[in-house]
UniProtKB/TrEMBL annotation:
It is an enzyme of class 7 (translocase). GO terms for cellular component: plasma membrane. HAMAP family: NDH1_NuoH. This is NADH-quinone oxidoreductase subunit H. The keyword Transmembrane helix applies. Keywords: Cell membrane, Membrane, NAD, Oxidoreductase, Quinone, Translocase, Transmembrane, Transmembrane helix, Ubiquinone. One of its GO terms (molecular function) is quinone binding. The lineage of its organism: Bacteria, Pseudomonadati, Bacteroidota, Sphingobacteriia, Sphingobacteriales. Coiled coil: none annotated.
Length: 343
């Protein structure tokens, strides 16, 4: 790899990292505004015009707050927990194709950090590691509410990762590849996988809510029962890391859903548009379409949070083991039968 290619890759990594942080930061603002709309309130409106500087004010508050480590906590692991949570949230974006290749002169610039042939397995590995940040933080706090929240998070992740994995198996039977780049390319124009795997998409989306600990699956931090759950004892930016990790996970989950099922950067008429606007503007329009899909999913995450109450814990586990897993298995069987007869 030439030095220029390394510089391009490094620049892309920095840009994606910055976008992830900015989207997570302003997702907090969007969530508060959406909640205010649903509850007939105004929402943040003091920090800057229409309150758009509120996320920066919140960030400054987090940085300036006192760092507190409980006396009976395990200091090293208490710090490792939120650090691991934010790290695993950020590295999931490495295999996501953000757009078609840019062609500038003789240079082809891929808008994907790396297109490994096991991209979906990479995503699942990162998601599986993320729960360790929650578990370590909850255990290291030496607080019964934190520990209960961490145990809930681990049980929830195990339950719903099975359903999520099974839903992806049906998709792999249709696409024949584990590479996110290839899956995005196969959905050229309007040939989106959601048309062929609607049940698989529905299962994946429900599991994404559980994996990101979003309502109605936010039992690990259920305030009415566990004070604050696994981050009860956290303050300052260590708490900020946990909160940021949740919003980055929501952003990455939305990007993965858009890539796997909703065509990624593809849209109807994209060839015609690219032919008329050129090989630079065309792919950038596709990237804009991709982000529009991501923001639509983020809005849906927030809409559900302020519309549906959380489940009881037994209802959450029953849904995962008794409904979603059988549905996912049935979807695999039906997909196999359809593929067999069509071939």
């Amino acid at each position: 790899m030439e030095l220029a290619d390394i510089a391009i890759k490094f620049g892309l990594i920095i840009i994606i990292f910055a976008i992830s942080l900015v989207v997570a930061m302003y997702s907090t603002y969007a969530e508060r505004k959406i909640a205010a709309f649903f509850q007939d309130r105004v929402g943040p409106n003091r920090a800057g015009p229409w309150g758009i500087l509120q996320p920066m004010a919140d960030g400054a508050k987090m940085f300036m707050k006192e760092e507190i480590i409980p006396t009976n906590a395990t200091p090293f692991l208490f710090i490792v927990g939120p650090s691991l949570a934010i790290l695993t949230a950020c590295i999931g974006s490495a295999v996501i194709p953000w757009g078609q290749n840019l062609v500038i002169g003789d240079k082809v610039i891929p808008l994907q950090v790396t297109d490994i042939n096991v991209g979906i397995l990479y995503i699942f590995g990162v998601v599986s590691l993320g729960v360790y940040g929650v578990m370590i933080g909850g255990w290291a706090s030496n607080n019964k509410y934190s520990l209960l929240g961490a145990i809930r998070a681990a049980s929830q992740n195990i339950s719903y990762e099975i359903s999520m994995g099974l839903s992806i198996i049906a998709l792999l039977m249709v696409t024949g590849t584990l590479s996110l780049g290839e899956i995005a390319q196969q959905q050229h124009g309007w040939h989106w996988n959601v048309l062929y795997q609607p049940v698989g998409f529905l299962l994946f989306m429900i599991c994404a809510f559980a994996e990101t600990n979003r309502t109605p699956f936010d039992l690990p931090e259920c305030e009415t029962e566990l004070v604050g759950g696994y981050h009860t004892e956290y303050s300052s930016m260590k708490l900020g890391f946990y909160l940021f990790a949740e919003y980055i996970n929501m952003f990455i989950s939305s990007a993965v859903m858009a890539t796997l099922y909703w065509g990624g950067y593809n849209y109807p008429g994209m060839d015609w548009v690219t032919a008329h606007v050129g090989p630079v503007i065309g792919p950038l329009i596709g990237t804009g379409v991709f982000f529009a899909k991501i923001f639509a999913f983020i809005f849906f995450f927030m809409w559900v949070r302020w519309t549906i109450p959380r489940f009881r814990y037994d209802q959450l586990m029953d849904l995962g083991w008794k409904i979603l897993i059988p549905l996912a298995i049935a979807n695999i069987v039906i997909t196999g039968i359809v593929i067999t007869f069509l071939n």
